[in-house]
Description:
The chain is mainly alpha-helical and 161 residues long. The protein has eight helices and four strands.
Amino acid sequence: MRRKPVPPAPDSLDRLWEAHRAVPLIPGSEDDCCGRLAKRLDVTPDEGRDWLVFCQSLGLARETSRGFERIRGDWTTGELRDEFVDHVFGAREVLDALGDDPQSPTAVFDAFEPTVPNWERHRDPEGWESRWQTRVERLLDWAVLFGAAAREEDRYVAVET
């Protein structure tokens, strides 16, 4: 399953590990987990939910019949990159839009735009484009953190893995 929520990429993976540690070891309800993440990360509850789902996408958390729980383990950047590409909606498509030549976020969005689901366009006809441009920029920044892309000034290029 590929999930959509993507929080803003931090300057380092330390923030991801902080979010990971905020997910309880003993399963808790979605509201409890989102509140816990929001408090620990000093973000809104909605942003806490994005972090929870993102951790789930990366295999750092899982939903059980009793709620969400943290998965213990040590992950390499390569393992996180693979989970990101396989389980975060748009990550694969954004990386496919990158080539050997550095691309601006706008050029990547232009290549990515046909994959935006129609229902997203109809749900917010005036704002979907801006929302998805921001999403593409976030995906690019996470790709850099996971070593799947490199930033060259204000452009991005794919990195061979």
